[in-house]
Structures are given as structure tokens and as C-alpha cells.
Amino acid sequence: MFIKNRQNWHISENDVTPERLYLNRRSFIGGGAGAAILGASGFAPGVLATPKRQLEELNFTKTAFDPDETLTPYDAVTSYNNYYEFGTGKSDPAEHAWRLQPKPWSVKVEGHVARPGIYDFEDLINMNALEERIYRLRCVEAWSMVIPWIGVPLSSLIKMFEPTSDAKYVAFETLEDKQQMPGVKSFFNVLDWPYREGLRMDEAMNDLAFIAVGLYGKELPNQNGAPLRLVVPWKYGFKSIKSIVRLNFVADQPKTSWKKSAPDEYGFYSNVNPNVDHPRWSQKQERRIGEFGRRETLMFNGYEEEVTHLYAGMNLRKSF
Ligand code: MTE
Fold first, then answer.
1. Does a structural domain hold residue 320?
2. Is residue 16 over pLDDT 70?
3. Whose CA is nearest to atom 9 of ligand 1?
């Protein structure tokens, strides 16, 4: 992204407080490597002036979507964020997103669908059919996390609206509200609001594409995109649009925020691809939050088997 905010992630073991549920699931980073486990830096999570929303526990079914890698601690997942509507610093969303009111919430659905309308969150998300999927999320800024998301497949939502054959793409928009989002009223506007993203219909219907309403067993914290956000694990993190208020089923490729803002740097597809450098930095490696050193970035973020067919015959250097 434009504003690079490099933080070093080292904290004491006391700061590592993942949910009870997850503590025993895997060995964290064992033994003497404990000091390698991160947490917030540059600010202390304990002193954030954040009136926190009480997050409800969710019931969910575990699925086989699990890379079996060490989970990124809850504190890191919820305090090192990109959500420019609340500021461009990594700690800004955790500090300011308490202003967001995720309840009640509705989503406008329009375009080439048989069932357009304004849907309440409760009508969109079947809270009795939530799944947990552990996905890697690889940010374009070359860091990554492994997060236990709770939600529903995007395809299950899309089917409810009965798209017609004219729907070739789905366009998403985030809430734009100056009262709740200090970044939106900021004089220094990095992006043209509302934040916009899009997927081709076959990408959106792929089983990996997910609408998250929670993480680590609880409702989504505001800074992670409450009450519902997209998670597209084979694409750079900026495709995973937060706090969605609009879905538009369209015939032509929709405009997306980062592509509009810097078309030479950010494309519509934004597939994680170690072979195509960002013009200002390499995408070959990444820093997994919580680890020392760097690891190799995998094609499609390691989800090659599930998504390669979507791009058969495409030149991914041109369609980046
Ligand atoms: N959605 C909105 N509305 N605004 C944003 O600034 N940032 C994106 C994406 N979704 C962003 C957004 C980027 S760049 C990333 S890497 C992910 O959210 C980060 O998600 P996380 O903070 O939950 O890790």
C-alpha cells in the first residue's frame, strides 16, 4: 500500500493471549523461541483507549480447511490491521474502530439478480450454519497471518440472490460513514471512498471464498471488518473487503479502490504471486507475523490446487 508502516513484532510471553480454545490446539512456538512470539509494538495493547464491544461467542462447525500451521495470536490479529477508514497506521483500526456500529446492519443487493433488495444481517447469515476455516491471509505488504475465521461460504450467499447469466462479476462496497470512520473524513484521503472490491463470478463461487462474521470463536471485532467481511485467501489481503454494505452483480469488471488509486501497482486480480514483483518491492518472500526471518511466498498463497484452474490461459503478469 502507499503508506508503509513497518513494525517489529516482539513482545513478552505475557502479551500472547490467544483464546483458551486455541491454546492447546497446536504447539505455539515452543521452548526458548517463546520470545519470538509477537504482539503489538509501537504501542501497548493494554493501554489502548478502546471502549471494546462485547463480542459474543459463536457456534460453529470445524472444517477441513486448515493449513495446519501455527495460528497467529489473537492479539496480533486484532491489533495489527489495515482498515484505512480508521487511519493508515497498523494500530489505528484497533484504536478507533470502536466507533463503528455493526448492529443493526443491512446489505443492499442489486444488479443482475432475481432477488435484489436490502437484506438484514440476520437474513443473510444463518448463524446455525457457521463454519470455522483456518486460512492464511497474505498482505501485499509482504506479511502474513494464519487466522481461524468463522463464517459461511460466499457461494451460499450468492445463491440466495439468484444471479442471472448477465452477472459476470460481483462488486463489493464498504460502509462510508464520516461519523463512525475518522479516516473517511480525514483531509489526507488515500482512497476514494467507499472502499470497493470485486471478484469474477467463478472466483466468487469458488469454495474457498468466504464471508467471515467471526474469528477465534467470537464475533468479528470492528477492526477486522464487523459485522461481515470477505476473505479470499489466495489473493492479496486488500481484496478481503471489510464491513460490507453493498453487493452489485454486474456485467463488466468493476472498479476497485486500489486499482483506481494506483493502477500500475494494484490490479483487479491481485492473486498472490511470488513471480510478479510489486513495482516497489519483491513478492517472493513474506514475514509471517510471529516468526523470525522470512518464508517463501507460495503461488496463490498455497491454494494452488483449488484455484489454478480459474486462471487457465491467462497471462498473470498482465492480469496481476
Ligand atoms: N477493507 C476496507 N474497507 N478498508 C481497508 O483499508 N484493507 C485491506 C483489507 N480490507 C481494507 C479492507 C487490506 S490492505 C488488508 S491486508 C486486510 O483488509 C487486512 O485485514 P485484517 O486487518 O483483518 O488482517
1. no
2. no
3. 238
Q: Which residue owns the Cα nearest ligand 1 atom 5?
A: 83
Which three three-digit cell numbers place residue 305? 490446487
Residue 167 reports pLDDT greater than 50: yes
Query: How many structural domains is the chain composed of?
Result: 1
Question: What is the DSSP track for 263-280?
Answer: TTT--SS-B--TTS-BTT
pTM for this model (two decimals): 0.88
pLDDT over 80 at 79, yes or no: yes
pLDDT at 18 over 90: no
The closest residue, in CA terms, to atom 19 on ligand 1 is 82
Q: Which atom of ligand 1 is nearest to the CA of 194?
A: 3
Q: Is residue 317 part of a domain?
A: no
End-to-end CA distance of the chain: 15
- Domain assignment of residue 149, given as a range: 13-311
Q: Are 204 and 158 in contact (CB under 8 A)?
A: yes
- 124: domain CATH number is 3.90.420.10
Please compute the mean of the pLDDT values over residues 36-48 and round it to a whole number: 39
Q: How far is the CA of 200 from the centre of ligand 1 (A)?
A: 19
Burial of 87 (0-12, 13-18, 19+ CB in 10 A): buried
Q: How far is the CA of 30 from the centre of ligand 1 (A)?
A: 30
Nearest CA to ligand 1 atom 4: 83
Task: Work out the pLDDT band at 34, boundaries 50, 70, 90.
Answer: very low
Does the C-beta of 139 come closer than 6 Å to ligand 1?
Answer: yes
What is the distance, to the nearest Å, from the Cα of residue 178 to the centroid of all Cα atoms in its chain?
22
User: Which pLDDT band, with edges at 50, 70 and 90, does 226 fall under?
Assistant: very high
From 72, 74, 82, the mutation candidate for ligand 1 (largest count of ligand atoms within 8 A of CB) is 82
**Does residue 59 fall inside a structural domain?**
yes
The predicted structure's pLDDT at residue 35: 33
> Is the CB of 193 inside a 6 Å radius of any atom of ligand 1?
no
Mutation pick for ligand 1 pocket among 238, 244, 256 (CB with most ligand atoms within 8 Å): 238
Q: Does any domain span residue 65?
A: yes
Cis peptide before 67 (omega within 30 of 0): no
